[in-house]
């Protein structure tokens, strides 16, 4: 059955449904109809994930129906409003969503709820990282839906050009995008996009399949690719490897229309959401849902693609592709604690920081100049929304193209520092392994360059001295120069990294600290 036929049938189903019952008032419990028999509980739950926390599910498999309980009535209203104009699909079959007469679900005494509870527990354990959610899917069949982290995307009704940068902005809302390759096949513009984790790809497919990038055109058709990894040879306007900033641009020169680089807030995906610039918070979770998702980098601020004012032409002046600026504006800093060196170390995890300037009159703001625009974009991707010294960082591109040093004879109280020639740059060597080990801030830190004389207690005490709670520690079996240490929270780990990266451990060994993707 094609989608047009399915949509027509769904329309008939809606009419029949409305004749059978009177409209329900808004409720946090939603009634779902026409659910395919072979759809999993996790897939049903995923319909609600872009909008907020899912607190319960009752499936009536014999009737192809389900009741989905959201964390709040507001979240449920947002979800119903969105799916009223954009039909959701499960396994290529349309699903109809309506408010339920129930105000809550009581399923404690019902049989056969084990799989449902496993999936729900996985969602509620997201603050522990992606492994818990992966475990929930495993409980339903042993593998993640789609079984891969690479999406194949076909863009239909390509009325306006879709750049690689636009694709990055759209898909990075749902997780860490590692690589993108664009090409034309069978007269269709197609994309292969690789995420860091299969569940990121799954979320993106569930939320974006069938959506329009621009109002009424550039429709996304998304499937899982059979490929296990993308090989990118060049970083240019056709392909990009965000883990290999050292790749050459090749012989292909950018062919972007100079006017196609406008970013605004109108007529973009999910315009009814209440988050920044019309977007929901990272991964679509509502801010009051009680979930933190450290395994998924925060959303990229207010960047969104504006609908053109004149059909056929982008009229907003700009640059030949974004990102183009290497200077970041960092705000909501704690002025009592933050220093230029602290920002240098933290942002240096995601690129080589050349200059840092804390504003003289507004010390809760700072400018951070990265080595290039791609590194600046990566820093935004991972650090926007991160907690630092009790505050949530806001990180975006600055209007400035360079951080100016103080003029000679002008004292700025040491608020501006030049780190252009710092030996602590992580990415100055082409092909360095550091390019392949860029991860979100996490409670587990990777330690290296440890001297042979250092003991477990030595290193535990060192981190405890920074105010951290050490939960676990493990030396690498094959290399005692490296170890993993798990602290009490992501914020604790961020503080410890700032204080202890390059710490002198003696014997000509300076500690190297990075965020780890592993747990102990």
Written overview of the protein:
With 520 residues, the protein is an alpha+beta fold. The protein folds into four domains: 3-139, Alpha-Beta Plaits; 150-254, 2-Layer Sandwich (Alpha-Beta Plaits); 327-418, RRM (RNA recognition motif) domain (Alpha-Beta Plaits), CATH 3.30.70; 442-515, Alpha-Beta Plaits (2-Layer Sandwich), CATH 3.30.70. 22% of the residues lie in helices and 22% in strands. A six-stranded antiparallel β-sheet has the order 10-11-7-9-8-12. The protein has a five-stranded antiparallel β-sheet with strand order 18-13-15-14-19, with helices on one face. Strands 2-3-1-6 form a four-stranded antiparallel β-sheet, with helices on both faces. β2 (54-60) and β3 (65-70) form a beta hairpin. Residues 1-10, 13-22, 125-146 and 252-323 have low confidence and may be disordered.
